[in-house]
Fold this sequence. Notes:
By secondary structure, the chain is an alpha+beta fold. The chain contains five helices and five strands; from the N terminus they run H-H-H-E-E-E-E-H-E-H. The chain has a five-stranded antiparallel β-sheet, covered by helices on one side. Strand 1 (40-41) and strand 2 form a beta hairpin.
Amino acid sequence: MTEGLAPAKEYHRNLPQRLRTYLHEARGITDAVIDLFLLGWNGSRITIPVFDRRGEFALFKLAKDPDDNTDSPKAGAARNDEVEQLKHSIAIEDVRPLSFGYVDVLG
């Protein structure tokens, strides 16, 4: 099992129905894609695990909760240890902003 697979599965199990509905209706992402790519929820961000060419966990792409009205970045990327730190902090400056919406690519 790769290092990020256990957290990815946990986050996937924690994906609230309201976010699944958002992914369906606003992003056009089906349950099959949500389940295949283990889209999840870490308590503050939608998580998208990314694996390298060898199939090893590389990092999580992070998407902002659609109900989050703060000025925090819309999306970012973090290794699992950084995701755990972000869950327990108010500041989101450790998240590296992306130049495009990764969730959009899945839809």
